[in-house]
Amino acid sequence: MWSNDSGCCGAHENCEKGLRILRDESLYYNDEELDAYKGIAPEDYTPEQAAEIREVFETLLPKEVSDWVCAMQARGINLPPDVREEALLLLAE
Questions:
Q1: DSSP string spanning the chain?
Q2: What is the reported pTM?
Q3: 10, 11, 52, 79: most buried by Cβ count inside 10 Å?
Q4: Tens digits of per-residue pLDDT, 51-86?
Q5: What's the Cα-to-Cα distance from 92 to each of 38, 45, 59, 66, 67, rounded to whole Å?
Q6: What is the pLDDT at residue 71?
Q7: 2 pLDDT exceeds 50?
Q8: How far apart are CA 15 and CA 10, in angstroms?
Q9: What's the pLDDT at 43?
């Protein structure tokens, strides 16, 4: 679930932050290595772990960001704070 400090509880069809709640598991991103980070709190990532998530994030096309964030949320992977903020900025554009 999206971290509580982001303001999204995950209970809305459309989050007030602009994120869709993933209802279908058909989305697939070639990032299964990130499954190792399931359940880690955003502030608990090491710099290396955060860099790995950022590396995947930077490969996304702008139109893929929302679905990727939702897929991460559905998989129980919190984003590091800087990646989360950048994703929200892209979604706000």
A1: ---GGGT--S-SSB-TTSPBPP--TT---S-GGGGGGTT--GGG--HHHHHHHHHHHTTS-GGGHHHHHHHHHHTT-PPPHHHHHHHHHHHH-
A2: 0.71
A3: 79
A4: 999 999 999 998 889 889 988 988 899 999 999 999
A5: 26, 25, 19, 10, 14
A6: 87
A7: no
A8: 7
A9: 96
Separation CA 9–CA 63 (nearest Å): 23
Q: How far is CA 71 from CA 13, 47, in A?
A: 14, 22
Q: Give, rounded to a whole angstrom, the gap between the first and last alpha carbons of the chain.
A: 23
Q: ∠4-58-85 over CA atoms, to 5°?
A: 30
Examine the pLDDT at 6 and tell me if it is beyond 60.
no
Q: How far apart are CA 16 and CA 50, in angstroms?
A: 25
If phi > 0 it is left, if psi is from -120 to 50 it is alpha, else beta; for residue 42 that is: alpha
